[in-house]
Structure prediction request, 179 residues.
Amino acid sequence: MSASADALAPTVQQLQQVNAELQRRKVDAEKDRDLFRDLYGKASTHASEVTKENNTLQEQLTLVEGQLRDGLAMVRGTYEERVRKLEDEARRWKGMYDVLAARDRRTDDELRRRAALQPELEAENARLKEELQKLGKDYHQMEDVLVQLAEQEEADGIPPVPKVSTVKITSVATTKVVE
Prediction:
């Protein structure tokens, strides 16, 4: 059997080499499998984490969009209210301005009218003072005449006429136009 063993020796050696090669390939395949399994696990974990993060970000986005929408509506409402109040206040001030401007125009018209009348009124006032002084002199002269007549009638024996009370004018009120 030795001849057949010698003939089979290269085949056994060849088979041992093939077996060693296959063992080595098996080990390499198992290493590749473990590597792929590890990479798959990492990829799966990463994908889960990314999905979880994506879901969290999506929830945050939804929340922020809601806050933005509600916040914008609130800010818009606040500014619209402020604008409305300012417009109301502006209308109130404009009304007050119109009233004051109209009063100012009337006052200016009245002042101009009074200023225009002042020289006439002063002249009339001076004329009336002179006339009052003349009338006062005439009145005093008439009183003196009446006193003389009463004395003469008394001296002539004529009964006295009831006396009429007299009004004494002592001052004249003056009007001054204020500019």
